[in-house]
Amino acid sequence: MSQPDSVQMFTVDSFTSHPFSGNPAAVCLLPWQFPEKLLQPIAREMNLSETAFIERLSAADDFALQQHFKLRWLTPTCEVNLCGHATLAAAAVLFKEVGNTSTEITFSTLSGKLTAKREGNEICLDLPLNPPVAQDSAVDSVIQDIVLGDHLPLQEVVFSQATKKLVLRLPDNVTREQLESLPIPNQHKMLASHDGSRVRGVIVTVKSQTDDYDFVSRYFAPWNGITEDPVTGSAHTVLTPYWAAALDKTGPLRARQVSPRGGDLTLRPVGDRLEVLGAACVVMRGHLLLPRP
Question: pLDDT, tens digit, for every residue of 176-190?
Answer without folding.
Answer: 999 999 999 999 999
